[in-house]
Amino acid sequence: MTLSLLFPVGSVRCASRQIGLFGDVAFSRSSRRAGAMRIVATLLVCLTMAAPVHAQRTAPTHAIIPAPQRVDLARTGSFTITDSTPVVIAANAGEEVERIGRRLATMLGPGAPRAPRRIAARAAVPPNAIQLVIDEDNDDAGAEGYQIDVRTGSVRISAREPAGLFYGVQTLRQLLPASVEHRAALSRTLTLPVGKIEDAPRYTWRGAMLDVARHFLPLDDVKRYVDVMALYKLNVLHLHLADDQGWRIEIMSRPNLTRHGGSTQVGGGPGGFYTQAQYTELVEYAQARNVMIVPEIDMPGHTNAALASYPELTCDGVAPPLYTGIRVGFSALCPSKESTYAFVEDIVRELAAITPGPYIHLGGDEVEKLTHTEYLRFIERVERIVRTEGKNMIGWGEIAPANLDPGTLVQHWRSDARASRDSAYLHAERGGMIILSPGNRTYLDMKYDANTILGLRWAGMISVEHAYSWEPATFLARVPERAVIGVEAPLWSETLEKRSDYEFLAFPRLIAIAELGWSQRNKRAWSDFRTRLAEHGPRLQAMGVNFYRSPEIPWK
Ligand code: TNX
Fold it and tell me: Does one domain contain both 191 and 215?
């Protein structure tokens, strides 16, 4: 074995290698044994390294983001992919595996979409094939993990679930040149380095949020966002579908919400909305990429578009005019009227019916028009409505002091753990889980620096390094690690008018958050991340993503 096979890629200092290796959760007995061998080898190398100049600073063998748990790739030896390399799946493989195989085969070959080849359980795998294998006993992989084994004459990706195979393919994609991202690529020969990868996510919730309310974003643009999310193994897209400036989802029983409430946006543009059929199309598009859609209708505040459409929701029965500015906190549903709860029931019932995922987000942030008690009673009542529809509620951090069900998720968004404002720990104490979206680290609408034209700055400016260099498990002092379900990066759209604006702020910072959500703590280091990220420039460009060429990254 060569040294490059022994060590996790990218770690250059002996100490960090040791921590990395000791910290590894070995997958299987054999890899645990290999792990022990590695530790001995590491100690030997550390001793040798005490001697002055030893050429340990070898170039990394890959630029995979998020960093996998374990990568052993050789510097010599490769598997060659040609136009005729078959992608093979089991004869009885289900629809999802078929789809993953088809997309892989299409990516590898030029021209028309290609189908994967099905082979019987006992039949020999054809030579030089890429095989996708579902192995239900593969407990090492978990629900989203996978293993890749590249040899000179075969490639095998295995996982317990289709989601794992999908992610194995995303990793494979990143081992190939950016040219595979061009849809109508020319005939070409590609190679993969021989070696093994074993991988599984750290957190189950790896999210992004799009505010399509302040400015409307057409469906195709949302799909493009999902495409990039999938490449980086993000699995939740939270859509902020209603706010003061616009209502963006068709509700059949309340047609004026979109007819009137959806007719404008910040700055007074034409707004827009998704029909339920379009929403369903997006849900399915996302599902095929292992992304769950979480719809949010913000309430009781951030509701001017709804109040303008249905005056019975206001306490005085008078509809306010539509709003196209960017202030917050001035609107609220009337908490003492039964018509308010009939409205919430209609919304939640229709959303639940078109949302296969288990969550409905009801906002709950920045309410200034209700007393604290009115607010808490409101939250408790709408939570019951969500549960009646068979879903779990999510709300922004402010909801934590209410008497919540432990199945509800609290999304922390404040920058720090100021005791008076941060109460997420109350939810952790009752056994609930917290999504971390701290403003000063994950808010993609914050400017990168003082020169950024788009975006806001209330939570500070967020460089790529600042978005990357924090630790979710210990971020909230009073929330234990086990109560953190994961991370999510919101992109609010007060200043964003079109897809290229959204992409400019999201990328590459969302990619940094993706690594926080997926990679083990001991596999993360800024110096290594920025070198890997540099290799992604051509790929993002090939995908047509308008990313910010941050000077922090040595772009290729
Ligand atoms: C705070 S974070 C908000 C949004 C704004 C955003 C702008 C949160 C739950 N509410 O209404 O769009 O700041 O950065």
Answer: no
